[in-house]
Design a protein that fits this description.
Blueprint (H helix, E strand, L loop, with lengths): L1 H71 L8 H13 L3 H19 L2 H21 L9 H21 L6 H12 L4 H19 L2 H23 L4 E7 L3 H12 L4 E6 L6 E10 H14 L4 E7 L14
Helix pairs in contact: 1-4, 1-5, 2-3, 2-7, 3-4, 3-6, 5-8, 6-7, 7-8, 9-10
Protein backbone atom coordinates (compact mmCIF):
# COMPACT_ATOMS: atom_id res chain seq x y z
CA UNK A 1 0.00 0.00 0.00
CA UNK A 2 2.77 2.37 0.96
CA UNK A 3 4.58 1.50 -2.29
CA UNK A 4 1.48 2.37 -4.29
CA UNK A 5 1.15 5.71 -2.50
CA UNK A 6 4.83 6.47 -3.22
CA UNK A 7 4.34 5.67 -6.89
CA UNK A 8 1.30 7.98 -7.01
CA UNK A 9 3.28 10.76 -5.36
CA UNK A 10 6.12 10.24 -7.83
CA UNK A 11 3.70 10.37 -10.77
CA UNK A 12 2.16 13.57 -9.43
CA UNK A 13 5.63 15.01 -8.92
CA UNK A 14 6.67 14.08 -12.45
CA UNK A 15 3.51 15.65 -13.87
CA UNK A 16 4.16 18.82 -11.86
CA UNK A 17 7.73 18.96 -13.15
CA UNK A 18 6.53 18.51 -16.72
CA UNK A 19 4.05 21.36 -16.26
CA UNK A 20 6.81 23.57 -14.87
CA UNK A 21 9.08 22.67 -17.78
CA UNK A 22 6.29 23.44 -20.25
CA UNK A 23 5.68 26.76 -18.51
CA UNK A 24 9.38 27.59 -18.88
CA UNK A 25 9.54 26.47 -22.50
CA UNK A 26 6.37 28.27 -23.66
CA UNK A 27 7.71 31.82 -23.16
CA UNK A 28 10.79 30.90 -25.20
CA UNK A 29 8.58 29.47 -27.92
CA UNK A 30 6.35 32.55 -27.86
CA UNK A 31 9.39 34.83 -28.04
CA UNK A 32 10.71 32.84 -30.99
CA UNK A 33 7.35 33.12 -32.78
CA UNK A 34 7.27 36.88 -32.22
CA UNK A 35 10.81 37.16 -33.58
CA UNK A 36 9.86 35.17 -36.69
CA UNK A 37 6.80 37.35 -37.28
CA UNK A 38 8.89 40.52 -36.97
CA UNK A 39 11.44 39.10 -39.42
CA UNK A 40 8.65 38.29 -41.92
CA UNK A 41 7.22 41.82 -41.57
CA UNK A 42 10.70 43.31 -41.99
CA UNK A 43 11.30 41.30 -45.16
CA UNK A 44 7.90 42.30 -46.56
CA UNK A 45 8.66 45.95 -45.89
CA UNK A 46 12.08 45.55 -47.49
CA UNK A 47 10.58 44.04 -50.65
CA UNK A 48 7.91 46.74 -50.74
CA UNK A 49 10.53 49.50 -50.39
CA UNK A 50 12.67 47.97 -53.16
CA UNK A 51 9.69 47.75 -55.52
CA UNK A 52 8.61 51.30 -54.72
CA UNK A 53 12.13 52.62 -55.28
CA UNK A 54 12.33 50.74 -58.58
CA UNK A 55 9.04 52.27 -59.77
CA UNK A 56 10.18 55.80 -58.80
CA UNK A 57 13.55 55.31 -60.56
CA UNK A 58 11.70 54.07 -63.65
CA UNK A 59 9.51 57.20 -63.63
CA UNK A 60 12.59 59.41 -63.12
CA UNK A 61 14.27 57.79 -66.12
CA UNK A 62 11.12 58.37 -68.20
CA UNK A 63 11.04 62.09 -67.33
CA UNK A 64 14.77 62.43 -68.06
CA UNK A 65 14.44 60.72 -71.43
CA UNK A 66 11.50 62.97 -72.34
CA UNK A 67 13.54 66.09 -71.62
CA UNK A 68 16.51 64.83 -73.61
CA UNK A 69 14.73 63.33 -76.61
CA UNK A 70 11.94 65.90 -77.07
CA UNK A 71 13.79 69.13 -76.24
CA UNK A 72 17.58 68.96 -75.96
CA UNK A 73 18.89 66.40 -78.45
CA UNK A 74 16.77 67.55 -81.48
CA UNK A 75 18.22 71.05 -80.99
CA UNK A 76 21.78 69.80 -80.37
CA UNK A 77 21.74 71.16 -76.82
CA UNK A 78 23.50 68.89 -74.34
CA UNK A 79 23.72 68.27 -70.61
CA UNK A 80 27.00 68.00 -68.73
CA UNK A 81 28.76 64.88 -67.52
CA UNK A 82 28.62 61.45 -69.12
CA UNK A 83 25.21 62.23 -70.69
CA UNK A 84 26.75 65.17 -72.59
CA UNK A 85 29.71 63.08 -73.76
CA UNK A 86 27.29 60.36 -74.89
CA UNK A 87 25.17 62.82 -76.90
CA UNK A 88 28.29 64.17 -78.67
CA UNK A 89 29.53 60.62 -79.29
CA UNK A 90 26.18 59.73 -80.82
CA UNK A 91 26.31 62.79 -83.09
CA UNK A 92 29.80 61.90 -84.33
CA UNK A 93 29.37 58.14 -84.79
CA UNK A 94 25.64 57.73 -85.38
CA UNK A 95 25.25 55.15 -82.59
CA UNK A 96 22.49 55.71 -80.00
CA UNK A 97 23.73 57.84 -77.12
CA UNK A 98 22.43 55.23 -74.66
CA UNK A 99 25.12 52.84 -75.90
CA UNK A 100 27.81 55.35 -74.94
CA UNK A 101 25.99 56.08 -71.68
CA UNK A 102 26.02 52.44 -70.57
CA UNK A 103 29.60 51.83 -71.68
CA UNK A 104 31.05 55.02 -70.19
CA UNK A 105 29.19 54.63 -66.90
CA UNK A 106 30.25 51.00 -66.43
CA UNK A 107 33.67 51.73 -64.82
CA UNK A 108 32.15 54.51 -62.71
CA UNK A 109 29.45 52.13 -61.44
CA UNK A 110 32.19 49.69 -60.43
CA UNK A 111 33.97 52.48 -58.54
CA UNK A 112 30.67 53.41 -56.90
CA UNK A 113 30.11 49.80 -55.89
CA UNK A 114 33.54 49.69 -54.23
CA UNK A 115 33.51 53.15 -52.62
CA UNK A 116 29.82 53.95 -51.98
CA UNK A 117 27.95 50.64 -51.79
CA UNK A 118 26.08 48.01 -53.72
CA UNK A 119 22.68 49.67 -53.22
CA UNK A 120 23.94 52.76 -55.07
CA UNK A 121 25.46 50.60 -57.82
CA UNK A 122 22.27 48.60 -58.38
CA UNK A 123 20.09 51.73 -58.43
CA UNK A 124 22.48 53.38 -60.91
CA UNK A 125 22.49 50.33 -63.20
CA UNK A 126 18.69 50.12 -63.10
CA UNK A 127 18.31 53.87 -63.79
CA UNK A 128 20.65 53.71 -66.79
CA UNK A 129 18.87 50.68 -68.25
CA UNK A 130 15.50 52.37 -67.70
CA UNK A 131 16.78 55.53 -69.41
CA UNK A 132 17.89 53.44 -72.40
CA UNK A 133 14.42 51.91 -72.61
CA UNK A 134 12.61 55.25 -72.48
CA UNK A 135 15.06 56.85 -74.90
CA UNK A 136 14.07 54.27 -77.52
CA UNK A 137 10.40 55.02 -76.80
CA UNK A 138 10.76 58.80 -77.21
CA UNK A 139 13.32 58.78 -80.04
CA UNK A 140 10.78 58.51 -82.93
CA UNK A 141 8.94 61.59 -81.63
CA UNK A 142 9.64 64.96 -83.21
CA UNK A 143 10.95 67.86 -81.17
CA UNK A 144 8.41 70.17 -79.57
CA UNK A 145 10.25 73.40 -80.48
CA UNK A 146 13.02 74.58 -82.78
CA UNK A 147 13.81 77.59 -80.61
CA UNK A 148 17.16 76.83 -78.97
CA UNK A 149 16.51 79.02 -75.93
CA UNK A 150 13.09 77.48 -75.22
CA UNK A 151 14.59 74.02 -75.71
CA UNK A 152 17.36 74.81 -73.21
CA UNK A 153 14.92 76.18 -70.62
CA UNK A 154 12.10 73.63 -70.81
CA UNK A 155 14.40 70.73 -71.64
CA UNK A 156 16.53 71.70 -68.65
CA UNK A 157 13.50 71.84 -66.36
CA UNK A 158 12.16 68.43 -67.41
CA UNK A 159 15.58 66.73 -67.48
CA UNK A 160 16.49 68.25 -64.11
CA UNK A 161 13.30 66.94 -62.52
CA UNK A 162 14.01 63.44 -63.82
CA UNK A 163 17.65 63.42 -62.74
CA UNK A 164 16.65 64.84 -59.35
CA UNK A 165 14.17 62.01 -58.82
CA UNK A 166 16.85 59.46 -59.65
CA UNK A 167 19.45 61.03 -57.34
CA UNK A 168 16.94 61.39 -54.50
CA UNK A 169 16.21 57.67 -54.69
CA UNK A 170 19.83 56.54 -54.55
CA UNK A 171 20.81 56.33 -58.22
CA UNK A 172 22.87 58.36 -60.68
CA UNK A 173 23.22 58.92 -64.41
CA UNK A 174 26.53 60.76 -64.26
CA UNK A 175 29.73 58.89 -63.44
CA UNK A 176 31.72 62.13 -63.09
CA UNK A 177 30.04 62.69 -59.71
CA UNK A 178 31.52 59.42 -58.43
CA UNK A 179 34.98 60.49 -59.59
CA UNK A 180 34.45 63.86 -57.91
CA UNK A 181 33.60 62.18 -54.59
CA UNK A 182 36.76 60.07 -54.77
CA UNK A 183 39.00 63.02 -55.77
CA UNK A 184 37.48 65.12 -52.99
CA UNK A 185 39.03 62.74 -50.45
CA UNK A 186 42.46 62.77 -52.10
CA UNK A 187 42.78 66.41 -53.23
CA UNK A 188 42.00 69.87 -51.88
CA UNK A 189 39.18 70.37 -54.40
CA UNK A 190 35.54 70.01 -53.38
CA UNK A 191 33.02 67.76 -55.16
CA UNK A 192 31.32 70.80 -56.73
CA UNK A 193 34.61 72.17 -58.04
CA UNK A 194 35.59 68.86 -59.64
CA UNK A 195 32.16 68.42 -61.27
CA UNK A 196 32.26 72.02 -62.53
CA UNK A 197 35.71 71.46 -64.05
CA UNK A 198 34.56 68.33 -65.88
CA UNK A 199 31.39 70.00 -67.15
CA UNK A 200 33.13 73.17 -68.37
CA UNK A 201 35.44 70.96 -70.41
CA UNK A 202 32.56 68.84 -71.73
CA UNK A 203 30.26 71.78 -72.53
CA UNK A 204 33.19 73.63 -74.13
CA UNK A 205 33.77 70.62 -76.38
CA UNK A 206 30.21 71.02 -77.65
CA UNK A 207 31.40 74.16 -79.42
CA UNK A 208 33.70 72.07 -81.62
CA UNK A 209 31.20 69.24 -82.19
CA UNK A 210 28.10 71.39 -82.85
CA UNK A 211 28.65 75.16 -82.80
CA UNK A 212 29.57 77.79 -80.24
CA UNK A 213 26.06 79.12 -79.93
CA UNK A 214 24.88 75.55 -79.16
CA UNK A 215 27.60 75.34 -76.50
CA UNK A 216 26.28 78.53 -74.88
CA UNK A 217 22.72 77.22 -74.96
CA UNK A 218 24.05 74.03 -73.39
CA UNK A 219 25.48 76.10 -70.52
CA UNK A 220 22.01 77.57 -69.99
CA UNK A 221 20.48 74.09 -69.99
CA UNK A 222 23.13 72.85 -67.55
CA UNK A 223 22.38 75.73 -65.17
CA UNK A 224 18.62 75.05 -65.30
CA UNK A 225 19.15 71.31 -64.78
CA UNK A 226 21.37 71.94 -61.74
CA UNK A 227 18.76 74.22 -60.16
CA UNK A 228 15.93 71.77 -60.81
CA UNK A 229 17.94 68.94 -59.25
CA UNK A 230 18.38 71.07 -56.13
CA UNK A 231 14.66 71.84 -56.02
CA UNK A 232 13.69 68.17 -56.34
CA UNK A 233 16.19 67.13 -53.66
CA UNK A 234 15.49 69.92 -51.17
CA UNK A 235 11.90 70.80 -52.05
CA UNK A 236 10.34 74.15 -52.84
CA UNK A 237 9.72 74.85 -49.17
CA UNK A 238 13.06 74.35 -47.47
CA UNK A 239 13.34 73.58 -43.77
CA UNK A 240 15.73 75.14 -41.30
CA UNK A 241 17.18 73.96 -38.01
CA UNK A 242 17.27 76.82 -35.53
CA UNK A 243 19.23 77.02 -32.28
CA UNK A 244 18.29 79.76 -29.81
CA UNK A 245 20.33 80.75 -26.76
CA UNK A 246 18.47 82.95 -24.28
CA UNK A 247 17.87 83.39 -20.56
CA UNK A 248 14.17 83.51 -21.41
CA UNK A 249 14.15 80.11 -23.08
CA UNK A 250 10.92 79.05 -21.36
CA UNK A 251 8.87 82.00 -22.69
CA UNK A 252 10.32 81.63 -26.20
CA UNK A 253 9.74 77.86 -26.28
CA UNK A 254 6.13 78.25 -25.11
CA UNK A 255 5.42 80.81 -27.86
CA UNK A 256 7.02 78.62 -30.54
CA UNK A 257 4.85 75.68 -29.53
CA UNK A 258 1.65 77.74 -29.27
CA UNK A 259 2.00 80.15 -32.22
CA UNK A 260 3.89 77.97 -34.70
CA UNK A 261 2.73 74.60 -33.46
CA UNK A 262 6.29 73.29 -33.63
CA UNK A 263 7.96 70.83 -31.29
CA UNK A 264 10.84 72.25 -29.30
CA UNK A 265 13.83 70.44 -27.76
CA UNK A 266 16.02 71.72 -24.93
CA UNK A 267 19.76 71.13 -25.20
CA UNK A 268 22.11 71.69 -22.29
CA UNK A 269 24.79 74.31 -22.92
CA UNK A 270 27.47 76.14 -21.01
CA UNK A 271 29.17 79.46 -21.72
CA UNK A 272 32.91 78.94 -22.25
CA UNK A 273 33.78 82.41 -20.91
CA UNK A 274 31.26 82.76 -18.06
CA UNK A 275 30.88 79.11 -17.19
CA UNK A 276 27.14 79.65 -16.77
CA UNK A 277 24.86 76.79 -17.78
CA UNK A 278 22.10 77.61 -20.26
CA UNK A 279 19.21 75.92 -21.98
CA UNK A 280 19.56 75.93 -25.78
CA UNK A 281 16.34 75.72 -27.82
CA UNK A 282 16.43 73.49 -30.90
CA UNK A 283 13.56 73.74 -33.39
CA UNK A 284 12.97 72.90 -37.07
CA UNK A 285 10.76 75.26 -39.10
CA UNK A 286 9.94 75.95 -42.74
CA UNK A 287 11.22 78.92 -44.71
CA UNK A 288 7.83 80.63 -44.38
CA UNK A 289 7.91 80.28 -40.58
CA UNK A 290 11.50 81.44 -40.11
CA UNK A 291 10.75 85.18 -39.92
CA UNK A 292 7.96 84.60 -37.43
CA UNK A 293 10.32 82.55 -35.27
CA UNK A 294 12.83 85.41 -35.25
CA UNK A 295 10.12 87.88 -34.28
CA UNK A 296 9.02 85.68 -31.39
CA UNK A 297 12.60 85.29 -30.15
CA UNK A 298 13.48 89.01 -30.33
CA UNK A 299 10.14 90.01 -28.83
CA UNK A 300 10.88 87.97 -25.71
CA UNK A 301 14.60 88.73 -25.48
CA UNK A 302 16.40 91.48 -27.40
CA UNK A 303 19.80 89.97 -26.52
CA UNK A 304 18.83 86.52 -27.84
CA UNK A 305 21.41 84.57 -29.91
CA UNK A 306 19.97 82.70 -32.93
CA UNK A 307 21.67 80.47 -35.49
CA UNK A 308 19.94 79.13 -38.61
CA UNK A 309 21.07 76.14 -40.72
CA UNK A 310 19.45 74.73 -43.85
CA UNK A 311 18.12 71.18 -43.47
CA UNK A 312 18.31 68.98 -46.56
CA UNK A 313 16.26 66.08 -45.23
CA UNK A 314 14.15 65.16 -42.20
CA UNK A 315 13.66 61.52 -41.21
CA UNK A 316 11.27 60.46 -38.47
CA UNK A 317 9.71 62.62 -35.81
CA UNK A 318 6.44 64.50 -36.22
CA UNK A 319 7.66 67.30 -38.48
CA UNK A 320 5.25 68.20 -41.26
CA UNK A 321 5.18 71.05 -43.73
CA UNK A 322 2.59 73.59 -42.61
CA UNK A 323 0.98 76.51 -44.36
CA UNK A 324 2.24 79.96 -43.48
CA UNK A 325 0.49 81.63 -40.59
Amino acid sequence: MEGAIKELNQDEGNQGMEKNINNIENPVSETSDIGKKKEIIRKRRSVKEILLRGIVLFIGAMVTAAGLEIFLIPNQVIDGGVVGISIMGSHITGFPYTVFLLCLNAPFVYLGYKRIGKSFAFCTIFANIALSFWANVFEPMTGVTEDFFLAAIFGGIITGIGVGIIIRNGGSLDGTEIVAIILDKKTSFSVGEVVLFFNLFILGSAGFVFSWDKAMYSLVAYFVISKMIDIVQKGLDESYAVMIVSDKHKEIADDLMQKLGRGVTYLSGEGAYTGNSKKVIYCVVTRLELNQLKEIAYEKDESVFVTVNAVHEIVGGRFKQRKSH
